[in-house]
Amino acid sequence: MSVPKIVILGAGYGGLMTAKGLAKELKSNEAEITLVNQNSYHYVTTELHKPAAGTSHHDHARLSIPSVINTKRIHFIQDRVTAIKLEEKEVQLENNEALKYDYLVIGLGSAPETFGIKGLLENAFFIRNIASVRTIREHMEYMFSRYANEKKEELITIVVGGAGFTGIEYVGELVDRMPELCRDYDIPLEKVRIINVEAAPTVLPGFDKELVDYAVKYLESKGVEFLISTPIEECTEDGVILKGGQEIKAATVVWTGGVRGNKLVEESGIETMRGRVKVDETLRAPGFDNVFVIGDSSLVFNEDERPYPPTAQISTQQGQYLGKNLAALLRGEEMKPFKYMPKGTVASLGRKEAIGVVGNKKLKGGAAAFMKKVIDLRWFYLLGGFSLVLRKGKL
Ligand code: FAD
């Protein structure tokens, strides 16, 4: 007798948690579980700003997928999804035959949101995956090496577009990296410019003001320049042009200003808002009883009808929820509604500094940095228990 086929797309926070949960809940005669991911490894997205700045090696931000799943229960396919065919109930892959499914879980993450800024996709860098952060680091180092010969200031000017979570965390890492990088290339530290440009009227919009002030003061004390309420209008080969026409010449422009859903989801015909799917209370896509969308590809609204920001935290909780509740559905039970339980937010400002709110407690400085480390380690614990924490814990 054939068993229901569950196909999970993407081994990010949401996809991995779903796969692990289903493998734990369901016996092999209850469902066939397949996980598809374009790389053989999972990248720890919340750590990518570190290798992008060069404060840690990119291998610290990735994990072999077969090493963290039960490969006897989960059939892992390393391949790129090229199309989702909802009517045919199949997924097309680049190098393998199309995959048929009875239940589909989409956890393909996000893509950069450029807000139509001219030249951004062509000329800026994006903190997206292992390959992209390796490129950023190598590009930045090459520009610094050229400065020794050419002495052009733009070679050691770095513009970071967006002062949200990713932007601030990346700027914090750059601050940590600069002394060593400048020593390596014989560049006086004070010559380097790190400019964080943000269109909104504040750094970290929506975050506690006292903590934002702390972060800005700390980063400014390390030489970071903030341009707030300053939209970037164009990104060129030479740098950025701001609203009003001012040009900043910079050899390295890194855009962190926002994300939208993966375009495969839009192309599948599911209704989306900026590429993200407004899922129902059981994380189903509208109009498709057998299709679930999780992580950055999904949109979940709070009681005030405002969408929760896309985070690893909500993606992980959605995966944990679906592991249990999809198993229940297969057994003919009711799915409970998904309820997001925010546990707090901590933004790092380099290795030893951070700001955050956990429960109703505000944290800053070393205490927040410690909490950030605990949060990072929790992800390894969820994936591979204490042994993985010990193996990857030096992050
Ligand atoms: P992802 O983790 O993005 O995984 C998607 C997976 O799908 C990837 O493995 C990808 O390779 C795969 N994939 C994509 N397209 C295809 C395809 N066509 N075929 C096959 N596979 C494909 N959130 C927090 O909660 N706390 C933080 O501190 C935090 N810090 C962050 C710092 C940075 C620098 C960044 C960039 C993000 C940060 N976030 C943080 C946000 C968080 O990382 C994302 O919300 C989270 O990764 C989303 O998880 P996901 O499961 O939706 O997708």
Any overview of this molecule?
The structure is a single chain. The chain is of the alpha/beta class and 395 residues long. The chain folds into 2 domains: 5-38 and 79-112 and 259-333, FAD/NAD(P)-binding domain (3-Layer(bba) Sandwich); 114-257 and 343-395, FAD/NAD(P)-binding domain (3-Layer(bba) Sandwich), CATH 3.50.50.100. The chain is built from 9 helices and 26 strands. It has a 6-stranded mixed sheet, covered by helices on one side. A 5-stranded parallel sheet has the order 11-18-12-13-14. Strands 6-7-8 form a 3-stranded antiparallel sheet. The longest helix has 27 residues, at 366-392. It is globular. The mean pLDDT is 96. Bound molecules: flavin-adenine dinucleotide. Flavin-adenine dinucleotide binds next to α1, β2, α5 and α8.
Class derived from helix and strand content:
alpha/beta
Number of helices: 9
Question: Which stretches of 5+ consecutive residues score pLDDT under 50?
Answer: none
Determine the CATH topology of the largest domain: FAD/NAD(P)-binding domain
Helix content: 25-40%
Rg (C-alpha, Å)? 22 Å
Enzyme class: oxidoreductase
Protein name: NAD(P)/FAD-dependent oxidoreductase
Family: Belongs to the NADH dehydrogenase family.
EC number: 1.6.5.-
Brief overview:
32% of the residues lie in helices and 26% in strands. With 395 residues, it is an alpha/beta fold. It is globular and about 70 Å long.
List the helices and strands and how they pair.
Blueprint: E1 5-9, H1 13-25, E2 32-37, E3 41-43, H2 49-53, E4 62-64, E5 74-78, E6 81-85, E7 90-93, E8 99-100, E9 103-106, E10 110-112, H3 120-123, E11 125-126, H4 130-150, E12 157-161, H5 165-184, E13 193-197, H6 209-221, E14 224-227, E15 232-236, E16 239-242, E17 247-249, E18 252-255, E19 259-261, H7 263-267, E20 277-278, E21 284-285, E22 288-293, E23 298-299, H8 312-330, E24 344-348, E25 354-358, E26 361-364, H9 366-392
Parallel strand pairs: 1-2, 1-9, 2-5, 9-22, 11-18, 12-13, 12-18, 13-14, 20-23
Antiparallel strand pairs: 3-4, 6-7, 7-8, 10-19, 15-16, 16-17, 21-22, 24-25, 25-26
Helix pairs in contact: 1-8
The structure holds flavin-adenine dinucleotide.
